[in-house]
Amino acid sequence: MEDTYKTITAASQEVLFKDKNSKFFGYAFPITSEDDIKEHIESLKKQHHTARHWCYAYQLGTQEEQILFRANDDGEPNNSAGLPIYGQIQSFEVTNILIVVVRYFGGVKLGVGGLINAYRTTAQLALEASKIITKTIDKRILIKFDYANINKVMRIIKEKNLNVIAQKLELDCEITISVRLLEITATLESFKNLYDVNLKTLND
């Protein structure tokens, strides 16, 4: 099982592709939810209020069962814009990303083949203008224990160099750690001899 994925951490620079007087402006944005998509598209519609089309594609999720994606032609002929953009997302193997291509019509029809080429090329340019990084798929584990066990728990956390992201150290203690997907089984195993310590994997 893979526990890494590729994405971008910052919006790309604006790119421009021209064909027969039509202008295609391309943008790539990192996203974490569908709400982000709406915000970016609304912002581009204000920026390019005289444009004809705002076509886009996005993908969210890091594992097969979680992946959400959509391709939108925004008035262009069916499958001539959104799918060619999405094809570049797949080609670059990136996720948690939105690519928008804004078109200004130049007075000359490009035909479906010309549109497919223009939207695909602009999406490719936007991705090439982005900094693509590899990230790990991490899961959170909640550790619950009595204060009397704090030294034992902390020793394992230190030995295994585990990433603590939240903690509540009172009579009843809770520590949340972040662990790479492929290391979860080994991490749970390292606590199994502590009988008064409960571990639970959290769903994000």
Automatic annotation (TrEMBL):
Pfam families, alphabetized: Impact_N
Source taxon at top rank: Bacteria
Residue span(s) of domain Impact N-terminal: 20-127
UniProt similarity note: Belongs to the IMPACT family.
UniProt protein name: IMPACT family protein
